[in-house]
Write a structure and sequence with these properties.
Elements: E1 5-8, E2 14-15, E3 18-19, H1 21-34, E4 38-39, H2 53-67, E5 74-76, H3 82-92, E6 99-103, H4 112-125, E7 129-134, H5 136-139, H6 145-151, E8 157-162, H7 167-175, E9 182-185, H8 191-196, E10 201-203, H9 211-222, H10 226-242, H11 250-258, H12 276-282
């Protein structure tokens, strides 16, 4: 399958300390009807490190029930202990999902050889499709392009979410594309220029807001209507900067709560709610 367009790493709403399944069901249906290209539950925007094992399956089960085959679903499934991740794949494989989005191992600072073998072993342990996720300012270690090219040789490693934060490295991947390998940006503020340089799309927390504008920008770039796409992008761009002034997904949850899409802006520790100062700025986005 070709991974392209706007993929939503959906939040996990909480209410009174529990996963708010009612709000979650409504969110999933709402965004599928908005026309998103694919859905990624239980990723880091979904606060996956703070999800209990039983909640993981509850959320995954509800996702597939509501999506009902309308769009593809990848599941956030990453960590820094390879064997544990491989064992946990058995849980994911019980469900009819297309694949996983797997972040590079964090904190323990593996070498490029360690990163390569981490993903290689995951690839060899499953038939699920795998999107690798590079976000070195969170993990502490970059996935070098040389490693990306090697991993792309694995038949079920089909793409990358590039949140590398290094323009030169990102440009090298875009200018030397890998056949049948999808390059999607995870840097929301880079979405427009990523597309204009041949990128396949984005996995964007910001697309919870102004969803159809993000989708329209993708369509217009595909149709070589760059000037119109740029006009829309200039309206959308402020969202991509404001949402990350404090820890994601707290600002996003505040807005979704104020818009009436979820019952509570709750996050789970160690993530806390947004400041009053930021809330005043976020209030300007409520109509988006």
């Amino acid at each position: 399958m070709k991974i392209e367009g706007v993929w939503l790493p959906i939040i996990t709403p909480f209410h009174n300390g529990k996963v708010d399944m009612e709000s979650y069901s409504k969110l999933v249906d709402y965004y599928v009807n908005q026309g998103i290209s694919g859905l990624i539950p239980l990723a880091t925007t979904g606060e996956s490190p703070a999800i209990e094992e039983d909640e993981f399956e509850m959320v995954l089960d509800k996702t597939l029930e509501v999506v009902n085959g309308r769009i593809p679903v990848f599941v956030g499934h990453g960590g820094n202990y390879t064997n544990k991740l491989i064992k946990q794949l058995k849980v994911v494989e019980k469900y009819k999902v297309e694949g996983i989005l797997s972040v590079s191992p964090y904190y323990n600072l593996p070498s490029q050889d360690g990163i390569y073998n981490h993903f290689l072993q995951i690839s060899e342990a499953t038939d699920l499709k795998i999107m690798i996720y590079n976000i070195p300012y969170r993990t502490g270690r970059n996935i070098d392009n040389e490693t990306v090219y090697k991993l792309a040789e694995c038949k079920n490693i089909i793409g990358i979410k590039d949140s590398g934060g290094n323009l030169k490295q990102s440009l090298e991947l875009l200018m030397n594309p890998i056949e049948d390998f999808s390059n999607l940006t995870g840097e929301d503020a880079s979405y427009y220029h990523h597309l204009t340089l041949g990128g396949a799309g984005g996995i964007l927390a910001s697309s919870h807001l102004a969803t159809r504008d993000f989708l329209d920008i993708f369509k217009m770039i595909q149709e070589n209507n760059h000037n119109h796409a740029l006009k829309v992008w200039k309206m959308v761009y402020p969202i991509t900067t404001l949402l990350f002034q404090e820890t994601n997904p707290a600002p996003l949850k505040y807005i979704l709560y104020k818009k009436g899409l979820i019952q509570s802006p709750e996050t789970r520790l160690p993530i806390t709610g947004t400041s009053k100062e930021l809330n005043k700025k976020l209030d300007t986005l409520i109509s988006s």
